[in-house]
Design a protein that fits this description.
Its main location: membrane. By secondary structure, the chain is mainly α. It contains eight helices and no strands. The protein starts with 7 loop residues before the first helix and ends with a helix.
């Protein structure tokens, strides 16, 4: 693959690191105290309650609503772990697949909000490109340890 300035693998690493920084910003901008006190899950519950797809309402009621504090921790620290994993290139395919899953969940929940759709759609697209482009091959802990090819 021909590329300007960096190799193709290095450009994919730039994409991966940028996505990791995006996840870290998502984690950083949350008011963790209020998020862990329930504000984030309460906000999502309001959205899920009005969702046009019954499966989303039912899934939220069965999985998230009974354990709001646990789910608040899961979301908050998943975003932190994804960001660190992608910036450092540690367990890169796992972080990319996890991020893709989280973005698809966010996309599904926020089907009515075009601003959220744009952000999550772009993050999902970057995840797919970085995953199938094997972006952990350059500038990563995975490469230093000889993991994933």
């Amino acid at each position: 693959m021909d590329a300007i300035w960096l190799t193709g693998a290095q450009w994919l690493a730039v994409l991966r690191i940028g996505l990791g920084l995006w996840w870290l910003e998502s984690w950083r901008h949350k008011d963790r105290r209020s998020w862990l006190a329930g504000s984030g899950i309460a906000w999502a519950a309001d959205i899920a309650a009005e969702h046009r797809w019954p499966a989303v309402r039912t899934g939220f009621q069965r999985v998230v609503a009974p354990r709001p504090r646990v789910m608040a921790y899961v979301v908050l620290y998943a975003e932190l772990a994804l960001g660190l994993g992608l910036v450092l290139g540690f367990l890169t395919p796992v972080a990319l697949a996890g991020g893709l899953l989280l973005n698809v969940l966010y996309l599904t929940l926020m089907i009515h909000d075009w601003a959220e759709q744009g952000q999550n759609g772009m993050m999902a697209l970057i995840s797919v490109v970085a995953l199938f482009g094997m972006s952990g091959q350059s500038w990563s802990v995975d490469a230093a340890l000889g993991l994933f090819g």
